[in-house]
């Protein structure tokens, strides 16, 4: 079959890479794609947020399956429009995508469904936000309700920092419209994990577990980013934890969406925290995690095209997933300065040598200029390897990265450290 993938980041590169290796798939096309995706797919320069352009592309190309990678087109209703014209789509409708598009909606639905999450209030008035922050005390977490590419969350150590963040968001300074509502919530302590599910109607199929590193700097210091590296599986997600996330988080939230008339077809991403007081949901996303998708696709042995088509055609029941027993680890190379301002257009050399050293390099924010690969986004490359242990996979990636020739790049040096500590202690 012919598959159209929407998006052009590291996640979409991993999806295209895996789809190309699926027996069920003859051709992958990708809009807009990127220079790395070009190796796997025919790239068409239509932006992932150009809904009319993407609709016309689907009409022209008649793919058997459309896979929508990022959240923005889902929140804009791309899946609804495609389905209305008869296309098989992997990605939820707009009403279900609100689960990610609005943190205030998502928290309210968690409350309604009895899904465990941090105590919170939603505010639009800066003075009321301040009063709530004073009442709860620090540390405390302030979140822009709308989409902010993973950067709209401030974990504040003092009340003053939280108040300033809330005021900044509500005044529209930091995140525009996305910050016109803020969710202020209790600070949770524990280990985080990403629990993803392929969902189609009542069928909820767990993917292997993974763990992201959202903070910019080693030791989980510094500002939040979209994710600086990930690995799979996450040892803190035992079979019992996986079962609990399925029963107490995924099933009730999907049922609550259904009760509102929103049918979910796509990836449900539950970001969870394992706290002393049990599991808590940090957030929901309605698409694969980026960079979690890179290690997940590296480990998936099943035919991805078949699985996603089965979900899109509401016949996921009975489908199971087969995983490589090895561990996979992905280190994100970002542009120096990210998640704030950074300089684009710098030449990146040595990518082939990084791959020849036993890794797969998924492209995220890259472009081509005069025959060279240059950086065009904050997160630029996702260097991924498999290993018998997380440590082995980590060593392969960091050794390979010595071949990367780019002064303006930055990466964390400790991706996977929690799992490696566990490996060393066992
Ligand atoms: P979110 O986008 O809501 O998952 O938040 C991004 C990151 O901020 C999470 O992955 C956590 O590392 C951190 N975070 C979010 N909410 C909380 C919370 N209530 N307590 C502590 N850390 C949090
Ligand atoms: N890596 C976190 C996310 O995709 O939201």
Keywords summarizing the entry:
single chain; 426 residues; alpha+beta; Rossmann fold; Dna Ligase, domain 1; D-amino Acid Aminotransferase, Chain A, domain 1; 4 domains; six-stranded antiparallel β-sheet; five-stranded parallel β-sheet; 14 helices; 24 strands; 33% helix; 28% strand; binds adenosine monophosphate; binds glycine
What can you see in these coordinates?
- The chain is of the alpha+beta class and 426 residues long.
- It has four domains: 93 residues, 3-Layer(aba) Sandwich (Rossmann fold); 56 residues, Dna Ligase, domain 1; 124 residues, D-amino Acid Aminotransferase, Chain A, domain 1; 99 residues, Glycinamide Ribonucleotide Synthetase, Chain A, domain 4, CATH 3.90.600.10.
- Strands 12, 15, 18, 20, 23 and 24 form a six-stranded antiparallel β-sheet that branches. Strands 3-2-1-4-5 form a five-stranded parallel β-sheet, with helices on both faces. A four-stranded antiparallel β-sheet has the order 6-9-7-8, sandwiched between helices.
- It is globular.
- The model has no long low-confidence stretch (mean pLDDT 96).
- Bound molecules: adenosine monophosphate and glycine (GLY).
- The site of adenosine monophosphate has 15 residues, from strand 7, strand 8, strand 9 and strand 17.
């Amino acid at each position: 079959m012919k598959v159209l993938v929407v998006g052009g980041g590291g996640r979409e590169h991993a999806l295209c890479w895996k789809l190309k290796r699926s027996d069920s798939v003859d051709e992958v096309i990708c809009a807009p794609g990127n220079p790395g995706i070009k190796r796997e797919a025919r790239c068409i320069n239509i932006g992932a947020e150009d809904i009319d352009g993407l609709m016309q592309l689907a009409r022209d190309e008649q793919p058997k399956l459309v896979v929508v990678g990022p959240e923005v087109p889902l929140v804009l209703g791309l899946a609804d429009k495609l389905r209305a014209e008869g296309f098989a789509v992997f990605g939820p409708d707009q009403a279900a995508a609100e689960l990610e598009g609005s943190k205030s909606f998502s928290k309210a639905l968690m409350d309604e469904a009895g899904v465990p999450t941090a105590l919170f209030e939603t505010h639009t008035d800066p003075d009321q936000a301040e009063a709530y922050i004073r009442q709860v005390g620090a540390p405390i977490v302030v979140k822009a309700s709308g989409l902010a590419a993973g950067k709209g969350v401030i974990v504040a150590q003092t009340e003053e920092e939280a108040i300033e963040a809330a005021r900044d968001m509500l005044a529209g300074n930091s995140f525009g419209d996305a910050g016109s509502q803020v969710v202020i919530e209790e600070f949770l302590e524990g280990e985080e994990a990403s629990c993803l599910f392929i969902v189609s109607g009542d069928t909820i199929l767990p993917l292997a577990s993974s763990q992201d590193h959202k903070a910019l700097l080693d030791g989980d210091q510094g500002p939040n980013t979209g994710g600086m590296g990930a690995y799979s599986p996450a040892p803190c997600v035992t079979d019992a934890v996986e079962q609990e996330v399925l029963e107490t988080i995924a099933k009730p939230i999907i049922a609550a969406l259904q009760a509102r008339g929103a049918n979910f077809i796509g990836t449900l991403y539950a970001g969870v925290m394992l706290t002393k007081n049990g599991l808590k949901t940090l957030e929901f996303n309605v698409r694969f995690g980026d960079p979690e998708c890179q290690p997940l696709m590296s480990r998936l042995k099943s035919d991805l095209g078949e699985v996603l088509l089965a979900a899109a055609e509401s016949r996921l029941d009975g489908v199971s997933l087969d995983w490589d027993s090895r561990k996979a680890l992905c280190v994100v190379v970002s542009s120096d300065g990210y998640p704030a301002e950074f300089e684009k257009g710098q030449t990146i050399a040595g990518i082939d040598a990084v791959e020849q050293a036993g890794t797969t390099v998924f492209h995220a924010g890259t472009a081509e200029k005069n025959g060279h690969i240059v950086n065009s986004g904050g997160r630029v490359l996702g260097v991924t390897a498999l290993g018998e242990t997380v440590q082995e996979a980590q060593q392969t990636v960091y050794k390979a990265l010595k071949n990367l020739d780019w002064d303006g790049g930055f990466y964390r040096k400790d991706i996977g450290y929690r799992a490696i500590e566990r490996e060393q202690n066992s």
